Amino acid sequence: MAHSTIPQQLVDSYAKTIYRIDTFPEPVYLRIDTFSAPLALLLQDTNSRHAAIVSAYNPFSRPLPIEENLTAHRSLRHCLQHQGYSIVEGSNIDPCAQWPAEKSFFVSGIDPDTAQFIGRQFNQNAIVRIGADAVPRLLLLR
């Protein structure tokens, strides 16, 4: 995406976020544009060349009450499961603690176009795209 309507301060915040995948027995922690050996193993274990991290919390980065965010999160879960994707819950964590953690899903096997479509469907500014190289990349949606 050559030009985005998302303020640069928000883009910077997304890039600094810690993306946690709640795998067992230990969670996997990801940083944008940083290779992750545990993520590479997770991709191998799920036999996936593509994955994404998608959230339904706080559409367009506008804070919502927790009840609305949880309802949106359940809707996203239903959407992903209905389409047959394997998902693992996680959280997107602001390392500066200025923004509450947001629930998200690690979606294995989802192609980038479908992940973008779902992110837009849930009014998100961005998703995290993951390819076979196990490097999470921020993908802006508007």
Provide key terms for this protein:
142 residues, alpha+beta, 7-stranded antiparallel sheet, 4 helices, globular
Note the total helix count. Answer: 4
Poorly predicted runs are none
Q: Biggest sheet: strands, sense, closure? A: 7 strands, antiparallel
Q: How many β-strands, per DSSP? A: 7
Strand numbers in spatial order across the main sheet? 2-1-4-5-3-6-7
SSE string: HEEHEHEEHEE
The coarse silhouette is globular
Radius of gyration from the alpha-carbon trace, in angstroms = 14 Å
How many structurally independent domains?
1
Question: How would you describe the overall organization of this protein?
Answer:
By secondary structure, this protein is an alpha+beta fold. It has one domain. Helix content is 32%, strand content 25%. The chain contains four helices and seven strands. It has helices at residues 8-16, 37-45, 66-82, 112-121; strands at 18-21, 28-30, 51-54, 86-93, 102-108, 126-130, 136-140. It has a seven-stranded antiparallel sheet, with helices on both faces. A hairpin with a 5-residue loop joins strand 6 and strand 7. It is globular and about 35 Å long. The relative contact order is 0.25. The mean pLDDT is 95.
